[in-house]
Structures are given as structure tokens and as C-alpha cells.
Amino acid sequence: MVTKVRKNSNSKSQSHEIDSSSTPFISKNVLFGSPQKLEEEDYNAIKDSDSYSNFKNIMFDVDKIDIDQAIVVKKQLTKIQILLRIFRTTKGKDKSAKLIKYFSDLTALILTKFNSYRMFKVQKTVQDLIKFPKLSFNPSKAIFATQVTKTIQPSKTQFFGNEGLAICFTKIAKQMAFFRHSMRFGWTYFNAMELYQQVTAKKNLHAYFSQFSESDFSLFLELYYNIVDDLLYMHKLNIWDNSSLKTELDKHDARSWYYQIILSLKSQYIKYCELNDMIMKKEIKRDMLLENKDNLINKYDDAALLHEIDELYKELDLIKLDLYRLGCDFAADSIDVFNLNVPKGTYAFFSFISGIIGFKMFWSTNKYE
After folding, report:
1. How far is residue 338's CA from residue 106's CA, in Å, rounded to a whole number?
2. Against a cut of 0.90, is the pTM above it?
3. CA 327, CA 354: separation in Å to the nearest integer?
4. Between the CA atoms of 284, 287, 291 and 295, what dihedral angle is there, to the nearest 10 degrees?
5. Is the pLDDT of residue 153 over 80?
6. Residue 288 in contact with residue 301, Cβ under 8 Å?
């Protein structure tokens, strides 16, 4: 790896390139490695090289070191570029469709609970507003009575058709659910082939199950979910029709996804704890490096450690968001698994919050080039 070091304005304009593999003072990983001591014969061979003299001239002049050049600065994309990047991926389309689906479910529920047409209903007629004098023959009533009734008492025949806004949003939600299901269809074959290759690599089932790991269990659960999910998708396409089998598969679909959520919660929590411990160790290491301010290499490592700790904190924030998302999915799927008697819209509410968090995570991971 080649590390570029730039001089400041007081020095010459040309830049120097240092091959870290040929220096006796720094490790091959300049940013994250620790100094390593070479053997005497390797040291003598490197000392006579031209790169060593260039390194010596630069490394021992603090003013010539530009630490920012050692850290890769990522260019942040604009919001439109991020959206385009998200919508070009299948996962991004799924996240967006999930948001639209459960937003439509909640909107349809609100419209059925609170009639939006009540605000347009007026009890007064045009005659009351104009205040015609009372006559035995009222011309305004004779001319405008039918039109006033049509204007002030609107029927349910609206802009969206005879079904109304609530049914319109319900249809949108159903179409988004079908769209997401279509993007999931077909994973059974690929996961089945992966499982088959793992079993054949162990030569027999006994050897496979004797070394059964958590990743193998995760693949088995995913395959279980894919089989049930694909069968339900074929039911939506009217390939088969059996109401009792459909009811049973719905239960298995909820259970298989529930098991995957629990396993993901466990693995993500372990990652969170490990990453938290790693950050603490890095910060302790940085404090120890700062105690020796005369060591130039330690100064260089301090800047690298700051960058590394910052990246670890960003990763920790993503894991936190994923734990929140999985918590919402766990609460939503618990309703189906245990057949809980909850207010209508509870499932859609938790799924909508999960969709927001998932979209935020995907947005954060696509912010930079």
C-alpha cells in the first residue's frame, strides 16, 4: 500500500510517495496498524534504499506531514442521487413499497374512523344565506331546490369512484403487498441449492448436523420461510386453491418470520456488544498514545484512530437502528403468531415504524460514493 504525504505551503510543491512495506518504522497498514520492528538484515537492506532516505526526510519534519491525506474522505451524494441509488436496487424498492403499503393501511383506517366528508356538509341552504322574504311562492326554492340538495349533501360518488378514499388506499396497500411479494418470489431455489451444497460438502447428513452452526440454522429458517412464502404467492396467482391449506400456510409464514426475527435480534445484539467493547478499547488505546506527545508515529496513529473510532460509531448507530427495526417487527408479528386481540391498525402501525427505520438505515448506507 502506498501512502501519499503532502508538504505545506512553506515547503516544495512536489509530493513524496512512501512504500510502507519498505520502511522499518511503520507497519503495512499505516492507518490502523501498530509499529513493527524488523529483523536486522531486513533493516540494513531497507536503510540503503532510496525510499528510506525520502521517508527519513519527511517523517521527521512535523510541518511536512498532512494527516488529512492519509484519511480517505468520502464524497456525500445529494438527496436526488441517493434516491436514484436506492430505487435502482431491489432492496430499495422493497423498503419504499413497505412504507407506501403501511402508510396506505393507516390512512384507510383513519378515513373509515373519521369521515372526511362531514366538513363539507352545510346545514344552511342558499335561501337561508340570501334571506329571502317569506312569500307564498318562493322562486329560489322552485329554481334552486334540487341543485342545493346536490351541492350541500354530496353522495359517496367522489373523484376516486364509487368506493371512496378509504377503499382507494386499501387497494393501494394490497397492490404494494403484491409487489413486495413478487420481488421475494423465487428465493426457494437458490437457498435450497446452497443448503444442498453444504450438505454434500460434508458428505453425509450425520456430519452436517453434528457440525450444525448458527449460520446453518439461519439458512434453514430462511429456506423454511421461502417455501411457505412462495406457496402463498402461487395462491395469489390462483395456481392452487385450498382454503384450509391457505390458513395453515399463513400460520407457518408468521412463525417462520418470527423465528428469523428472534435470531436476528440475538445476532445483532451480540454485534452491538462486541462493537461497543471494541470502541472502548480503541479509546483507551488513543488515550495511551496521547500521553507520549513526542512520538511522531503515535501522533500519526492518533489521527488514524480518531477516524477509525468515528467509523465504528457510525456502524454502532446502524446496529442500534436495526435493533429498533427488529423490535417493531417482533411486536407486529407477535400479533399474528399469538393471535392477539389488539386494536385495529396496531400491526400496520408497528410495521410502518419498522419501514421508516429500515428506509433510514438504507439511506444512511447509500449517502456516500
Report:
1. 22
2. no
3. 8
4. 90
5. no
6. no
